[in-house]
Inverse folding.
């Protein structure tokens, strides 16, 4: 996924001189996860440059650049670091089009590594997607594989409005099979591990069916897509696994079609359960599929606790927890 994201930057910068990349250590060093490696050398210090350790300054500057006509793609080193810049994201970036009656837009992409997997504890491992999906004017994207990461990032850069682009750290150096704490098997072709070198986009707001089934619908995104697939494989249940890819805009038709077909729904995400994005998904399913449901909607998520360090892998929803929830839904 790192290579796919770097390639997306490269193609976007080559195709449009308005695209600029900025953030902490993204220039000479190429980013803490190497997602911007080589861009400064190729495009120069005015197109890819380092910023001070100030998320407020990074986001605020990028909003001004976007309003001026550029297309900034900024990196916040970890999603946990975005809080100093959150006011700029919510009060300025998300509202610029509305506040100016359409005179200004904000074609800004804010990339952030999200979730756990590196033993970074509570300041390097949070999954804050719900903090963005609640804000009108923002789009929120979370890819689950390299091919989607590239196509979604290019689509985000092309978009005329601000996009929050969250990159699951556990998938950076894939492959990941859902069972283990580190990559162990090659990406399967149906998981889109092979990435075309061409310029292409994956449309925002369009979910993908990773596995077709008739007994149960599992809604997920990012790393948890692979965990869900592992649990389904382990149980042998005929479940349909939907990878949302973008949380806002949400592909409601894909969700409704699947749940009405299967009559059962399980939602899986890594973020804390209470007020997590799964609650919104459950509300959508309840409203649109009530008369088709054969069992209560279930959710599997992170614990409602501060993010642990030593117990990181107990915090993650794993195949065993997902499998238990699948059994509960099927037996209800």
């Amino acid at each position: 996924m790192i290579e796919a994201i770097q390639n997306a930057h490269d193609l976007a910068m080559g195709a449009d001189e308005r695209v600029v990349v900025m953030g902490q250590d993204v220039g000479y060093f190429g980013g803490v996860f190497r997602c911007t490696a080589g861009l400064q050398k190729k495009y120069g210090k005015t197109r890819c440059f380092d910023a001070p350790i100030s998320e407020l300054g990074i986001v605020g500057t990028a909003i001004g650049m976007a309003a001026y006509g550029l297309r900034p793609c900024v990196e916040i080193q970890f999603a946990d670091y975005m809080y100093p810049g959150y006011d700029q994201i919510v009060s300025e970036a998300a509202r610029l089009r509305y506040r100016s009656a359409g005179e200004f837009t904000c074609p800004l992409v804010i990339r952030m590594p999200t979730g756990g997997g590196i033993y970074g504890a509570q300041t390097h491992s949070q999954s804050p997607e719900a903090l963005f999906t609640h804000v009108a004017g923002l789009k929120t994207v979370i890819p689950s594989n390299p091919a989607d990461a590239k196509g979604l990032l290019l689509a985000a850069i092309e978009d005329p409005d601000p996009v929050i682009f969250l990159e699951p750290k556990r998938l950076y150096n894939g492959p990941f099979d859902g069972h283990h704490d580190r990559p162990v098997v090659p990406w399967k072709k149906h998981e889109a591990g092979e990435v075309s070198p061409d310029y292409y986009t994956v449309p925002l707001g369009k979910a993908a069916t990773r596995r077709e089934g008739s007994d149960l619908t599992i809604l997920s995104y990012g790393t948890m897509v692979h965990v869900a697939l592992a649990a389904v494989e382990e149980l042998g249940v005929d479940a349909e696994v939907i990878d949302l890819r973008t949380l806002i805009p949400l592909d409601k038709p894909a969700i409704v079609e699947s749940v009405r077909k299967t009559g059962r729904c399980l939602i899986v995400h890594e973020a804390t359960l209470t007020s997590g994005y799964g609650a919104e998904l459950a509300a959508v399913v309840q409203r649109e599929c009530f008369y088709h449901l054969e069992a209560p909607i279930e959710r599997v998520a992170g614990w409602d606790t501060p993010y642990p360090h030593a117990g990181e892998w107990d915090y993650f929803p794993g195949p065993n927890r997902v499998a238990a929830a699948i059994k509960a839904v099927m037996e209800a």
About this structure: The longest strand covers residues 265-272. The radius of gyration is 19 Å. Residues 205-331 form a domain with the Rossmann fold fold (CATH 3.40.50.920).
